[in-house]
Structures are given as structure tokens and as C-alpha cells.
Amino acid sequence: MMDDIIREDIENIKRNVKAEFFAAKKVLVTGGAGFIGSWLCDVLLDFGAQVTALDDFSTGRMKNIDHLMQNEKFNLIKSDVCRFKAKEKLDIILHMAGHASPDEYQVHPIETLQTSAVGTKNMPR
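RESULT FIELD:
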């Protein structure tokens, strides 16, 4: 049921966003194997972007992006966003990494803050 709702939302996004804006752009999605990040990777690939997902798999899941691994426009980097250093110029960065549930970020408050603050600081300018 949840997947159907999300698919419907994604189709609405595709109808309302100018796909050509993303075409041929190099996009980094931190937290790309997470729930929202993986759906975002799908949409960006449909828009023609070259997508790199960055994830340390602390909360993200490989099953969320397995179907993307054969796509030549998709790249996965297994790394902590707090230690990441970009090796190429990127056009767009979407910072989705982090503990998303209250239970998780209450158990891991320092890691949550570091992912948000240090992870953002590490993104190339």
C-alpha cells in the first residue's frame, strides 16, 4: 500500500517538475540507500541525471537500490558522509543522510548532529 502511494506521488512529481533541468547533471544524493533517498535516485535517473548515491548503510538498505546497480548512470559510494571527499565536480547535492525516526535520533543524538552539520560542511562547494 505504501509503495502505491509513493509511486503515485512520484508520478505527480514527474508531471510537475521540469525534467530537463536535471538531464545530464551530476547529482549526489547523500543517504541514497535510505527510504526517501532511494526514491529520489529513481526519479533523478528517470529525468536523465547522472546519480551518485552516498550511504554508509547505518540506516539505508541495499534492497532499496539493488534495482539501480545495473544502470550505467548510477554510482554507489559506501562511505560516511562525515568522512566523504568528492573526487569530481557535482552540479547538484541533495543531502538526505541522517537518522530519520525519533527513536533512532534519540538513541544516536551525536551521530545525528554530526551527519547534519559535518556532513553538510563536507559537501563540495
